[in-house]
Amino acid sequence: MNRTIKAILAVLFILIITFSAITITENIGRGLKADITEQKIYTLSDGTKSILSRINQPIDIELYYASTAAVKGPDQIKFYNNYFEFVRSLLEEYETAAGGMINLEVIDPRPYSDEESTALAAGLKKFPITQDENFFFGLILKTGFGVQKTIPFFSPDRQNFVEYDISFLIDTAITREKKKIGVLSSLPVMGDDVTGYMAQMMRMQGQQPKEAWGFVGQLRQQFEVETVPADTEEISGIDILLVIHPKDLEEKTLFAIDQYIVKGGRAIVCVDPHCFADQPDRQAAMQGMPQSQASNMPELLKSWGLSMQPNTFAADMQLAQLTPLGQDQRPVKLIGLLGLERGCFNEDLAMSSDLNDVRVLFAGVLKDIREEDSPLQLDPILMTTSKGNSISVSGSYELMYPDPDRLLNKFYPGTEPVYMGYRISGNIKSAFPEGIDITVESEEGEESNQDSDQAQPQTKHLEAVAQGSDCGVIVYSDVDFISDMLAFQRTFLGMASVGDNNTLLLNSIEDLSGSSDLMKIRSRGNYRRPFEVVDEIEAQAEAETAEEEKKITAQIEGFQKELQEIVSSAKQGEEDIVGSAILEQKKALELKIREAEKRLQQVKLQRREKIEELGNKLRNINMLLAPAIILVVAIVLAVYRSLKRRHYIANVNKQ
Amino acid sequence: MSGFLAVFKRELKGYFATPVAYVFLVIFLFFSGYIPFKQGFFENRQLDMRLFFVNMPLLFIFIVPSVSMRLWAEERKSGSIELLLSLPITVKQAVLGKFLAAWLFLVIALLLTLPFPLTLAWLGDPDGGLIFAGYVSAALMAGGFLAIGSFFSAVSRNQVISFILAVVACSVLVFAGMPTTMNFLSSFLPNGLVNAISQLSFLQHFDSMQKGLIRFSDLAYFVILIIGWIAACGYILEERKAN
């Protein structure tokens, strides 16, 4: 064989081996990788991995990102390129971790294409960029069983929770059953739980069936909601337990709640040192019988690492709201009616990070009383500002007819936030580790004592599970926040949510209902890293020019006012007499306005120039500094070598 | 071993003895600093080196073959290869010595772009891990390009031809992973084959690494690629020696 042909064949053989080896390592080493980013942004949380391990059907994920359109868009759109890269990488991690159960496709929907139609049909948000181009950045998830879920738009506000959102979508897509919520309450929150026909019948008999609270109606749209009796011995068959205003519950009910949670059940508990929605019986009140509107279950709270003092309330001057205390009365500031705003919610929890406006009415104060070595994890959800504090009243009568001034006088600002909501997770210990004894009427007793008139009550021991794992409870120290009084308002279209009160409840349910895995998904941290120095310079320049800007703006407003006055005075029929003078004055003022506007522009320009100057400086350093140094070194070396050579030649000649 | 070290030292010294290396460094450093700013690094206000690294494959397509073209073509043209291969060193030692010296030179060129990460550190708090991953992936990619370049330098005694051949080969391996190429290929090739082709692309492995995720398959890709092309280069030289 010709040597050249032999060489070519040998080289081809080597290259084929090389490329085969690459293909093999691509497939065998898929799982081996190291995420060396500071915030481990490509590493999936344990919760997500657990959700992915439960996938029992193929899932197609279509990530829609209009990358071609983004190029044509304004600078703000280009910002999404980084975010898209991050989302795509994260989804690739999902694909790898799912072991072939997830198939990821990245789609750039072009104008008038089938992909664009699919995106629009699925409800993905579109933002027109040009006449033809639309900007998309969303996700469609399709399971093998035909369930379709979407994230209409990857909003930058949710960037810290993008993993939570994707995992939540997968978790709900593979869980086909509707979640069942059990409501245990001392209040008639479920209304008269009757069918439409029964309600009609009651109306015909002149009775008005009681309506369920607004939040129950909202929950029924997404979940199966059922009543859990307040005297139950055991709670089972539900996914989430909602305990609202647990007032004077029997020990066996407390035991049932405790055991439900210890055995891994999920619960949201709303206790309240004074529940305004719990209207006292008027007749009894008139007879002077004391009636408490407080609810608590200290034994259980203690086992969850919390305590709530009676007659003590969270207060905050900055958050206190104005409200009229009666008809035709002026609104007054009520120190216990708090409008919680951003900063009052735990931003590290997916459930509370997006909240803006939650109102609570004389909420209690929750204190973390965990022991040092407690296995529980307590995450605060709601809090006052750091200047919030607690106030105490001597009894519930003080709040039946509240005196705003008197209550205000009790308040003095604190130094730390007061907490009104906690999420508890981990291994909760039972409040009744030994179990409890309950009294039951024995059937055997009845049989054996047939002659006696009364059945013999007997004691029955209920065994307890002492400690559970992966428990999840959310406790709020207010009940009123979910009442129709604060959370809803009646409009001609029906009940409408007010603020984020109902959202908080729904988020809490979502947080608990997904799975314990979802609770383990941490915030992904802030992957955006801004130019801090530039931000500082901008802020400084803004502060420096703000005064001048304000002055010039005021001047412009003054001139404009003057101009208006002149024009209106001219309209009053004097234009003939002082026409030319007015015209001159008008011109002079217009000139002044234009000059002031120019000055204002100049101020803004200076600010922009300062930043641009920095950009240019940095560009020059990066572009020219190193090449310049290399050039200098090269020239110095060349000169040195040339001198050395000359010196050598000269010396050789001498020799 | 001593033969390898001798070739390595001679080659590395050789780079700094001629003005060509300085010209190369100046051009490389100028463009690596210029392109990110041109593409809106400052305006984006995002403290990372994505725009710096994202253009590296295109920059390397021209820069690396210009370093590799002289590795063997020059020796063959001047006839010094006969002398080199008659010395008491093996072809393997000579190939590795030259390759590693050229690679080190490219790594030095990369390290001279340090003003960029320093700028980032001055501007705020960048992700150190991400920057490190970017440099590692760029260095590996330079090694891959260089191995291809060495092979073509050994194939032809004309430097220009070896430069052009290396540029074409590197371009094919970079552009195989571009979305447009993949779209085009998928119009007449089955999906499996298109995926296999994209797996051979520099771009796919470089992209994932410079984002801070170092996969075994990406590292293996560069290592196998370098070993394969260097082996092919060695084989060609062995053949020439026998001739």
UniProtKB/TrEMBL annotation, chain A:
<feature type="domain" description="DUF7088">
    <location>
        <begin position="38"/>
        <end position="140"/>
    </location>
</feature>
<dbReference type="InterPro" id="IPR055396">
    <property type="entry name" value="DUF7088"/>
</dbReference>
<protein>
    <submittedName>
        <fullName>Gliding-associated putative ABC transporter substrate-binding component GldG</fullName>
    </submittedName>
</protein>
<keyword id="KW-0812">Transmembrane</keyword>
<keyword id="KW-0472">Membrane</keyword>
<keyword id="KW-1133">Transmembrane helix</keyword>
<keyword id="KW-0175">Coiled coil</keyword>
<dbReference type="Pfam" id="PF09822">
    <property type="entry name" value="ABC_transp_aux"/>
</dbReference>
<feature type="coiled-coil region">
    <location>
        <begin position="579"/>
        <end position="613"/>
    </location>
</feature>
<feature type="domain" description="ABC-type uncharacterised transport system">
    <location>
        <begin position="178"/>
        <end position="507"/>
    </location>
</feature>
<dbReference type="InterPro" id="IPR019196">
    <property type="entry name" value="ABC_transp_unknown"/>
</dbReference>
<dbReference type="Pfam" id="PF23357">
    <property type="entry name" value="DUF7088"/>
</dbReference>
<feature type="transmembrane region" description="Helical">
    <location>
        <begin position="621"/>
        <end position="640"/>
    </location>
</feature>
TrEMBL record, chain B:
<feature type="transmembrane region" description="Helical">
    <location>
        <begin position="12"/>
        <end position="31"/>
    </location>
</feature>
<keyword id="KW-1003">Cell membrane</keyword>
<feature type="transmembrane region" description="Helical">
    <location>
        <begin position="128"/>
        <end position="148"/>
    </location>
</feature>
<feature type="transmembrane region" description="Helical">
    <location>
        <begin position="219"/>
        <end position="237"/>
    </location>
</feature>
<dbReference type="Pfam" id="PF12679">
    <property type="entry name" value="ABC2_membrane_2"/>
</dbReference>
<protein>
    <submittedName>
        <fullName>Gliding motility-associated ABC transporter permease protein GldF</fullName>
    </submittedName>
</protein>
<dbReference type="GO" id="GO:0140359">
    <property type="term" value="F:ABC-type transporter activity"/>
</dbReference>
<feature type="transmembrane region" description="Helical">
    <location>
        <begin position="160"/>
        <end position="178"/>
    </location>
</feature>
<feature type="transmembrane region" description="Helical">
    <location>
        <begin position="94"/>
        <end position="116"/>
    </location>
</feature>
<keyword id="KW-0812">Transmembrane</keyword>
<feature type="transmembrane region" description="Helical">
    <location>
        <begin position="51"/>
        <end position="73"/>
    </location>
</feature>
<dbReference type="InterPro" id="IPR051449">
    <property type="entry name" value="ABC-2_transporter_component"/>
</dbReference>
<keyword id="KW-1133">Transmembrane helix</keyword>
<dbReference type="GO" id="GO:0005886">
    <property type="term" value="C:plasma membrane"/>
</dbReference>
<keyword id="KW-0472">Membrane</keyword>
